[in-house]
Amino acid sequence: MWLTIDVEEVTDMNFDVKWREKPQLVYEEYIDTFIEFSKNRKATAFVLGSFAKKYPDIVQKLSQNGVEIACHGLHHNLVYTEEFDTWSKDLSEAKKILQELTGKPVHGYRSPSWSMPFEKKYYEKLAQIGFTYSSSYFPMKNYMYGNSINKKTPFIIYTDYGEIQERPIPKNIIPFSGGFYLRVLPLWFLKILFKRTKNSILYVHPYELIDENLLRYYKKYAAYNLDYFLAFYASSSARNKIRILLNEK
User: Fold this and answer.
1) What is the DSSP letter of 235?
2) E strands of the chain, at which residues?
């Protein structure tokens, strides 16, 4: 299992959550939990450039503990809403920030909310900037992101600047391996899906590593609406689910 985390602040999410006040989260505590989970397994942190500038010590701590640092963009904007040149300029800046912080090359990219269009020019730019792989393909279309073409296994995009390997998020009837799906689906069902999936990917966010029910926690900070429900509903602690799933792989 490839363990990944999208390192961003909770207020970066693209759901239209109405905040009563800015949540007070101790991100280093949640990253420490991820580092604990990452021991003796392949783990990658897709870090937002804006997060790295605000919390450089956290990014360095991840790198120093053997977690690969990859890029999540500069800001958590939906890629398909941005001008192509703006996206590519910001991406180059984010990559530079991460490489200067860690002293290591950054090879991987995951677009915010899986929002990079499945178009050749985006992969051309990734290769030109120096990336060798992407994990931006979501094999199901929904109202915010995803693709209607059902690609479920890694594939290569050939460009004039070199090859880019795309590593789609797993799907077994439905996506299941992180985020909203991990929070909502019952643990027994998740166990079955992970066991049936080769080369599985588990993806999380720092705010899903809070050791309590997310819905109770965020009632303090956010006004209830549909996007609040989509963002935070959890049948049980996501952190506990992740711990159990990792121990069984």
Assistant:
1) S
2) 2-7, 18-19, 43-47, 68-71, 108-109, 133-134, 155-159, 162-166, 171-172, 174-175, 201-204, 222-223
Q: Which residues pair with 164 in a beta bridge?
A: 157
- Report pLDDT digits (tens) over 94-152: 999 999 999 999 999 999 999 999 999 999 999 999 999 999 999 998 888 888 888 88
The bridge status of strand 171-172 relative to strand 174-175 is antiparallel
The tokens 């991990």 sit on which residue? 182
Query: What CATH homologous superfamily does 2-247 map to?
Result: Glycoside hydrolase/deacetylase (3.20.20.370)
Cα(105)–Cα(125) distance, integer angstroms: 17
Predicted TM-score (pTM) of the model is: 0.92
| Domain residue ranges of the chain, discontinuous segments joined by + | 2-247
Of 208, 219, 227, 234, the residue nearest 14 (C-alpha): 227
d(CA 205, CA 225): 21
Q: What is the pLDDT of residue 46?
A: 98
Cα 83–chain centre separation = 22
**In sequence order, what are the residues at sequence separation of 6 or more whose Cβ sits closer than 8 angstroms to the Cβ of residue 249?**
1, 194, 200
- Which DSSP category does 185 fall into? S
* Residue 120 to residues 16, 82, 157, 161, Cα–Cα distance (Å): 30, 16, 8, 12
